[in-house]
Structure prediction request, 155 residues.
Amino acid sequence: MDDGKSKEKKTIVHSALDNIPLVSVMEHASIPWGIKSNESKFVYMNQAAMNFCNIPKGFDVEGRLDSEIPVSWSELAPELQAHDRKAEQSKEGADVIETAYFGRDAILAPWHCAKFPIYHSDGTVLGTMFYAKAFNFYSVYEFFNNSKPSVITLT
Prediction:
């Protein structure tokens, strides 16, 4: 029996989610987040992404291509743009594990970087949004002793 309250609650939640600006969520995140246009030009990067990518303080990335940013990885622009196109062509996006000297301290570490397409309301792709998280390695010992999974498949 529907008393109308569940429908009302769903409408309130949906309405509240519509009013949360995505950039505001990214701005307050501690992990690197960013947005690029479908021309691979940066639209937005939060401070964590600026630090992660070691972009010089005060440098404005907005409207710039990877190749126009004064960092060592700018030479990888063709590969990064190919990754943007791959993410735009898949509803699942595109993931990569990158190992490089990341951050202001230039620490060699692997990171999981994911890109997702951003769609306009008419279904066209506007660009991509991305985030990065430190990649965690688990030994078989740690996996068995700490995680205690119910099913394990090793290959």
